[in-house]
Amino acid sequence: HHVAVTHARQHTIQVVAHRGASEDVPEHTLAAYVKAIEDGADALECDVRLTADGHLVCVHDRRVNRTSNGRGAVSALELADLAALDFGSWRDRGDSTEAPDWSDPEYTSVLTLERLLELVADAGRRVELAIETKHPTRWAGQVEERLVRLLRRFNLADPPTPGESAVRIMSFSPRSLIRVAAAVPTVPTVYLAQFVAPRVREGRLPARARIAGPSIRIIRNHPGYVERLHEAGLQVHVWTVDAPEDVELCVRLGVDAIITNRPGQVLSQLGRA
Ligand code: G3P
Ligand code: CA
Question: Which first-to-last residue range defines the signal peptide (predicted)?
């Protein structure tokens, strides 16, 4: 027997595009996600909120004020109201090297989760999706209900095992994760946290989530944290990792996913682009 067997375990860090390739392109626009896919991102992150007429849209803040030319809470506006707003031009500093066409709706239209799911389905390669539910508790389960309905429509609700799922649901809200886990038990959940929590350290996450989502600040201040989480049987997905030295730290500590606004640069730092 002269078969050489290599046991070097290739631990590939998943690169997740935070709000799309949002360093280059207005966050949460279709163009930001198209760019992230072109850049080679393994997964896309998006925040979802419910409109007044029950549509899930990809908007981070409670209000549309920062990222559009409109005003008011997403929850008080209907999809048609949001569709009339410009979600891109606020980023037009007139100094872009690859000046986008600001009249192209891909750069300026509000993005529905449905449209993002279509984009991923048509990507031509496996692109995973990490969907974050934002302040979902006041909606008494409506956000999760709509979300699960969409996952079913796109045949993403029943992966045989969590490891095979192309989608995962993230939240700072334990209640939201519990609702998701009850409806779609094999879709993985990610418990996001800004602070070190003893329960998390011991591997006790809400909804029996097996993925912890700490901020890079936690990782910088507590370098032993990743190892602790791994020992507790959890995966570790860190946000938001943009600085090269932070990417370096994440590589050294062996995190499982890096969530970044600049997927192209991170992939080239990792030698994958
Ligand atoms: O990926 C998690 C991260 O996005 C959480 O923070 O405020 O950017 O949604 P935020
Ligand atoms: Ca987010």
Answer: none
Q: First and final CA of the chain: distance in angstroms?
A: 37
For residue 18, give the CATH number of its domain. Answer: 3.20.20.190
pTM of model > 0.90: yes
Neighbouring C-beta atoms of residue 35, cutoff 10 Å: 23
Phi and psi (nearest 5°) for 19? 60, 25
Of 1, 7, 11, 18, the catalytic one is 18
7 as an active site residue: the answer is no
Q: Cα separation of 56 and 29, whole Å? A: 14
The Cα–Cα gap between 176 and 92 comes to 35
| ipTM score of complex | 0.99
Neighbours of ion ligand 2 (CB under 5 A): 47, 132
- Mapped onto helix, strand or coil, the DSSP state of residue 62 is coil
Containing structural domain, residue 226 = 14-269
